[in-house]
Every structure is written in structure tokens, then in C-alpha cells.
Specification:
This protein is α/β, with parallel strands linked by helices and about 475 residues long. The chain has three domains: about 5-85, 3-Layer(aba) Sandwich (Udp-n-acetylmuramoylalanyl-d-glutamate--2,6- Diaminopimelate Ligase, Chain: A, domain 1); about 100-315, UDP-N-acetylmuramoyl-L-alanine:D-glutamate ligase (3-Layer(aba) Sandwich), CATH 3.40.1190; about 325-460, Alpha-Beta Complex (Protein-Tyrosine Phosphatase, Chain A), CATH 3.90.190. Helix content is about 35%, strand content about 25%. The chain contains 17 helices and 21 strands. The chain has a nine-stranded mixed β-sheet, with helices on both faces. Helix 8 (about 200-205) packs parallel to helix 9 and helix 12 (about 345-355) packs parallel to helix 14 (about 385-390). The chain is globular, with a radius of gyration of 23 Å. The model is unreliable at about 460-464 (pLDDT under 50).
Length: about 475
């Protein structure tokens, strides 16, 4: 019989809470809609108060709920773990999950590439032993403790993604995760509106080393102009070793050669002196750079990169991160490339470069604005025009920021501009033809998923 994730006694000890029922839980959840039977539901206050959904979670089979007030509609005697504050309770449970973990932990951050690298590490380390990683981009103040609270007892490796929106957010999460290896994938303009400069972004990303376990290792982009500063921060935090990845001769995990085509990426790497062959069905050279980072992490943990590398044959970008599928358009079908989850200038350029590799009658870029760029927003949007014009036959844009890109495009490349994603849909639909490859990308707040959904729901009768 499988041991529970948490017993009642362990829940009390971890959180300092009161739980009358002698229950055991098999998982931890914060969303009642998809809760698995036997899980602990944590009633967080976010956009909505989770206490309003405790009754629903229990009805769906939750074994218990963590609360800090009496939830409405719950029967007397329900299994309630009562704590002073549910966010603090989740953080305490995450800390306890990390404390009992006997394996090796990795923490990954970066302006772009952190989720993809996390998914690569899930596969690579999974080839070496039982590996736990978040099911999605759970990289914030609740996502990191939730990932740790879900850590299975028998895991040998844990991969924790850590993100930020504002200064001072990464270091506390890194200290909670206590990684043996940290990796910074890249430094770019994401959230520059909140941090002010690339230098400030580098400082924030570099603070992930604050959580390193004694004797830990930092894996950093050797090609980045910020490598010296990030390496110094890692050493100041006690890193015993710094490993650089990239394409330059100084990189210890080096892309010797790489080729990207419509079927994916093939590369040859030298990882700490070991020759590694790589093949992935993911389009775009940026995936090869992420792989160089991930393979360096494997080596830092004492694993054999060459043995692990074949696992990347199963790597595919997640939902909203580059997955491609056919969709119906009037007269036939087109290829939809869904990059709607998020966007920053480096990620936009990588996605456009990947679009250029797709064989298609026409290549269409559908771009929503990038957010949190502050005073640099207009210039950073306009600066994408050469990349968009080179990759796409037509470019459709929405949002105020993307108006600057649209105006900077050659007139022949301008497909249309709209104030928001919903208004862009009819302009785009009217222009699509069979054989098109359609890239949809933008910040989460630009709601480009609306475009993806509209194209996915194109009536099948419109195709012939």
C-alpha cells in the first residue's frame, strides 16, 4: 500500500495547526475544480477567497481542507486543518516537505526559458531516478511552496521553478527550496518596467543563489554579459562551483554545433568534456540552449549527461508555449502555433525565428503586446519589427504597445491592428488561407488565448 503524502500528525507538526480528524492526504491542491480525491485543499486568498470553495472541494472528495476561518456551507465535523493564515500554512508545509526530502533539489530561474528548462530536467533527471517537478509554471509565492508540499516521499530529484515580478521575490523562495544546484537560463527585459534595468533584473535573478545548500553549484549563461556578476553572486553565496553553458569556447556545457528545422533540433554538445548527441522534436534553436543548461545541471548533480540526453526525444513545449496543431480555415487547414502563455522581447524573437523554420504557404505572426516594460515599452515593441518582418509574410497585432511594432513594419507586412485580442479575431480569420502557419504570441495579460480558442473553434464545415 502506498504511503500517504501527509498524515494528520505530520500536517499538525508542519503547520502548527489544529486538525481533529485522523485523516491522511494523498496530495495538496489550491483549486477545488480539479481536486483529486484524498487531497488536502488549501483555502488561499487570491483573486477569490478559497474559503468559499471548501464545501465544493470536500464534496469532490478532498480528505481535508486547510482554513483560517470558518468556511461557509461546511458540515459540522468536517476535516478542517485550522491555521492562523493559510498562505503561511502552505509555506510551512512546503518547508516541511523540503526538510524531509532526502534527494537532490534544483532551482531554475531566468527571464525566458525557465519553464522549458524545468520540463527538460523533468525528463533528464527522470531517466536517472524518480523526479518531482511542478505540473505547470508554479513559480511564485504560492507555487513554490505548493511544489514542495507535493514532494513525494520517494523522490530522488526535485526541480523547482522560481519566477518574479518585482525586486526581492526570488531570494525568499530560493531559501525555501534550498537547492543543491541553481540555474539561471537567461537575462532579458521581462519585467523591466518593475525593475528598471537589465542590471537590476540580473541582480534579482542572481539572488537565487541565496538559497544554495553548502557546496552547491550554479549553472549560468556563459555567453551573457552578466555572467561575471552572476558568478560573483553565486560564489558570495557559497557556491563551490560555477558551470557556464552556451556557444562560446569558455562554456563548459557547450553547443559545438546545432541545427534547427521544421522537425526539431539536432545538436552536438560538450558537457564537462563528455560528448553528447541531442535530438528534440521542438522547433527553434533556443531549445538547444536550454538543453545545454539542463545537461549542465545533470552533470552538476553527478549524473551522466550522455545517458540522460536521449530522454529529450520526448520533449515538447507545453500548452501555450509553442505546441503546434492543425486548425480548420476556409478551404482547408492551417498550422496553429500556440505561444499564447507569455512574452518578453527575447522570447518574441525566439518564437519568430522558430516560425521562420516552418514550411508553409505563408507565415502569419499574430502578436499581443508585452507587459511590464515600463518607459521602455514603445521602443522594445518597435525593435521587434525587423524580426517580425523577416519571419512572417503578414503580421497582425493588438494592444497599444504593439501599435509601435505595427507602425514600424513595412506596409506590405501589415496584416491588421486591433485594440485587443477579441477585436483582432475577425481581421485575422478573414485573411487566413489553407497552408498558412500561424504563430500566436503575447503576454498573458494580452489574452492571446482568445485568438487561439477562436481559431481552434473555427467550424469544421468551413474547411474543404
Amino acid at each position: 500500500m502506498t504511503a500517504p503524502l501527509w498524515t494528520a500528525a505530520e500536517l499538525r507538526a508542519a503547520t502548527g495547526g489544529a486538525l481533529a480528524a485522523e485523516v491522511a492526504v494523498s496530495g495538496v491542491a489550491i483549486d477545488s475544480r480539479g481536486i483529486a480525491p484524498g487531497a488536502l485543499f488549501v483555502a488561499l486568498r487570491d483573486a477569490r477567497d478559497g474559503h468559499d470553495f471548501v464545501a465544493d472541494a470536500l464534496a469532490r472528495g478532498a480528505a481535508a481542507a486547510m482554513v483560517d476561518r470558518d468556511p461557509p456551507g461546511v458540515a459540522p465535523g468536517a476535516a478542517l486543518l485550522r491555521v492562523g493564515d493559510t498562505m503561511e500554512g502552505l509555506r510551512a508545509l512546503g518547508a516541511a516537505g523540503r526538510a524531509r526530502f532526502a534527494g537532490r533539489a534544483v532551482a531554475v530561474t531566468g527571464s525566458v526559458g525557465k519553464t522549458g528548462t524545468k520540463e527538460m530536467l523533468r525528463l533528464l533527471l527522470g531517466a536517472l531516478g524518480p523526479t518531482h517537478a511542478a505540473v505547470a509554471s508554479y513559480n511564485n509565492h504560492w507555487g513554490v511552496p505548493l511544489t514542495l508540499a507535493r514532494l513525494p516521499r520517494g523522490a530522488e530529484f526535485a526541480v523547482i521553478e522560481i519566477g518574479m515580478n518585482n525586486p526581492g521575490e526570488i531570494a525568499p523562495l530560493a531559501r525555501l527550496a534550498r537547492p543543491h544546484v541553481v540555474a539561471v537560463t537567461a537575462i532579458g527585459e521581462a519585467h523591466v518596467g518593475h525593475l528598471g534595468s537589465l542590471e537590476a533584473i540580473a541582480e534579482e535573478k542572481g539572488s537565487i543563489a541565496a538559497g544554495l545548500e553548502p557546496g552547491g553549484v550554479a549553472v549560468l549563461d556563459r555567453d551573457s554579459p552578466f555572467f561575471p556578476r552572476l558568478a560573483a553572486m553565486a560564489r558570495e553565496a557559497g557556491a563551490a562551483r560555477v558551470i557556464g553553458f552556451g556557444s562560446g569556447a569558455a562554456a563548459e556545457s557547450r553547443l559545438v554545433e546545432a541545427a534547427a528545422g521544421p522537425e526539431g533540433v539536432r545538436a552536438r554538445l560538450s558537457v564537462l568534456g563528455a560528448e553528447v548527441a541531442l535530438a528534440m522534436p521542438a522547433v527553434g534553436l533556443h531549445h538547444a540552449r536550454n538543453a545545454a543548461c539542463a545537461l549542465a545541471v545533470v552533470a552538476a548533480l553527478g549524473g551522466d549527461p550522455a545517458r540522460a540526453a536521449p530522454a529529450l526525444a520526448a520533449y515538447a513545449p507545453g500548452a501555450g508555449r509553442g505546441g503546434a496543431r492543425p486548425v480548420a480555415v476556409p478551404g482547408g487547414t492551417a498550422l496553429l502555433i500556440d505561444e499564447s502563455y507569455n512574452a518578453a522581447p527575447p522570447a518574441m524573437r525566439a518564437a519568430l525565428a522558430a516560425l521562420a523554420l516552418r514550411p508553409a504557404a505563408r507565415r502569419i505572426a499574430v502578436l499581443g503586446e508585452m507587459r511590464e516594460l515600463g518607459a521602455q515599452s514603445a521602443a522594445l515593441h518597435a525593435a521587434l519589427a525587423p524580426d517580425a518582418a523577416a519571419a512572417a509574410d503578414l503580421v497582425f497585432c493588438c494592444g497599444d504597445g504593439m501599435a509601435h511594432l505595427f507602425e514600424a513594419l513595412p506596409p506590405a507586412k501589415r496584416g491588421g491592428h486591433a485594440p485587443d485580442s477579441a477585436a483582432l479575431v475577425p481581421l485575422l480569420r478573414a485573411a487566413l488561407r489553407p497552408g498558412d502557419a500561424i504563430l500566436v504570441k503575447g503576454a498573458l495579460g494580452s489574452r492571446m488565448a482568445v485568438v487561439v480558442e477562436a481559431l481552434s473553434l473555427q467550424p469544421a464545415g468551413d474547411a474543404s
